[in-house]
Specification:
Blueprint (H helix, E strand, L loop, with lengths): L5 H13 L18 E5 L2 E4 L4 E4 L14 H11 L10 H13 L5 E5 L2 H16 L3 E5 L45 E4 L4 H11 L3 E6 L15 H12 L2 E6 L10 H6 L5 E4 L10 E5 L1 H4 L17 H17 L1 H22 L4 E6 L2 E6 L9 H4 L4 H13 L2 E2 L8 E2 L6 H21 L3
Parallel strand pairs: 3-13, 5-6, 5-7, 7-8, 8-9
Antiparallel strand pairs: 1-2, 2-3, 4-10, 9-10, 11-12, 12-14
Helix pairs in contact: 2-9, 3-9, 5-6, 10-13, 12-13
Bound molecules: pyridoxal-5'-phosphate.
């Protein structure tokens, strides 16, 4: 642990002088320990002092093939000499849409955007337009991007602010969101069958969409209980609500066909981003033809100067081709399973109570859960944040970068080989030993 961080700290200080908080996304801020990363390659990133980290944050999920992956860079470089943006459709846009339709059951048509936020914003508008209703149902602890209609009751909501479990309240996650929008956001608890039925019977007639991350990628990767997604599908059908799967994190990560392939339940609309571009800005809204065709002149507006830019779409073609041809995700899941089991065994051996959930390509780990099997966000936030933070800081000091907040997943990439997993597990073992020795309750 004899790493030094002087250049990284100095760079961060400098960043603070010209950028609020010294970061370009609030979520990257980690106080004075905020890292400044100079480069990445495969499963690794290096900070300004040349310290190497095995990266399990992977930019919050996008880097599915590894940093600087050659399959992606080669495609982009091939495209760059031909320009990037035109006021016209480009063949790469058609190819990305065709590939998504082929891979994702439930997706008949696709529009491209640039970020997950743009995708969920347009999906919400589409749902409102299609149903002629205004409200959105979302889940406590779920994050769907930065726009005003979804930045409510996310995983960052202060503990104790959510109201009664029978009637969760929508909590704004930022100043500057018009208060009036609160009346158009209904918050539900994940895996609460009965609560959702009550909500839909009461308010279903006003709800355009039920937006769900089919596994809670922003809340320790909790999984839906058996039958839960099927139950939501039926409620949506019965009450004329569009089911929207936000697959910004799960899409092209847990299966080629995302949550629908994995769980066997179809949504009406889907949003994809992150893994689609291996870190380049490209996103997609997809869904049933009838709903997607509401995007039409005089009906629903979707657009943007950079939508379908050739760099983003070249990256997406490279990723989708690798997923289809090379069985990337299934192979990754084999290694991810070994990593999960290794961590589980080590923590058990050191007597550190913990809970693991999710999918081997994207999983959650929390310490000291208060229930045997956490099922919803309110169970997650009862985990031991301080203990995980200590574990995370030991890991980082020994060269494994995980998010210090256990609500974020550990992400795998195609570049996390067996030997990278072995190295990780050795470090996890050392970090667990230190937590056991030094954690003060
Ligand atoms: C499930 C989910 N939806 C939407 C978003 C927003 O995506 P972006 O950051 O690309 O705007 C995120 C980002 O973390 C996400 O996890």
């Amino acid at each position: 642990m004899n790493r030094t961080y002087s250049k990284t700290r100095a760079a961060f200080k400098h960043a603070n002088e010209v950028t609020p908080l010294g970061v370009n996304s609030n979520f990257r801020y980690a106080g004075e320990d905020t890292m400044v990363i100079e480069r990445g390659e495969g499963p690794y990133v290096w900070d300004m002092d040349g310290n190497r980290y095995i990266d399990y944050r992977l930019a919050y999920g996008p880097v599915i093939l590894g940093h600087g992956d050659k399959r992606v860079s080669d495609r982009i470089i091939q495209q760059l000499g031909r320009g990037n943006l035109y006021a016209h459709t480009h063949p790469l846009e058609i190819e990305v849409a065709e590939r998504i339709v082929r891979l994702c059951p439930g997706v008949d048509k696709v529009r491209l955007s640039n970020s997950g936020t743009e995708a969920t914003m347009h999906a919400a508008r589409l749902a409102r337009a299609y149903t002629n209703r205004d409200a959105i149902i979302k889940f406590e602890g779920a994050y769907h991007g930065n726009h005003d209609y979804v930045l409510w009751s996310t995983a960052n909501m202060p503990i104790g602010s959510g109201g009664s479990p029978r009637s969760p309240v929508a909590v704004a996650q930022s100043s500057g969101i018009p208060y009036e929008i609160r009346g158009m956001v209904y918050v539900a608890r994940f895996n609460d069958f009965e609560g959702m039925e009550r909500l839909v019977k009461d308010k279903g007639g006003e709800a355009a969409a039920m937006v769900i991350e089919p596994m809670m990628g922003n809340a320790a990767c909790l999984m839906p209980e058996p039958g839960y997604l099927e139950y939501l599908r039926k409620l949506c059908d019965d009450f004329g609500i569009l089911l929207v799967f936000d697959e910004v994190k799960t899409g092209f990560r847990i299966a080629n066909g995302g949550a629908t392939e994995h769980f066997g339940v179809k949504a009406d609309l889907y949003t994809f981003a992150k893994a689609l571009g291996n870190g380049y800005p490209v996103a997609a809204i997809g869904g049933r033809k009838e709903v997607m065709d509401t995007i039409a002149f005089g009906q629903v507006v979707h657009g943007g100067t950079y939508c379908g830019n050739a760099v983003g779409t070249a990256a997406a073609v490279a990723v989708l081709e690798a997923l289809e041809k090379e069985n990337v995700l299934a192979n990754m899941a084999g290694r991810g399973k070994r990593l999960m089991k290794g961590i589980d065994d080590i923590l058990t051996e050191h007597g550190l109570p913990h809970f693991m959930s999710g999918h081997p390509n994207m999983f959650g780990l929390m310490f000291e859960p208060k229930t045997e099997k956490p099922k919803e966000f309110r169970d997650v936030i009862k985990g031991n944040f301080r203990m995980f933070d200590l574990f995370g800081s030991y890991l980082r000091d020994m060269g494994v970068d995980v998010e210090g907040d256990f609500r974020e997943p550990w992400f795998m990439s195609d570049a996390h080989t067996d030997s990278v997993i072995d190295e990780t597990l050795n470090i996890v073992n050392d970090a667990a030993k230190l937590v056991k020795q030094n954690y003060v309750p």
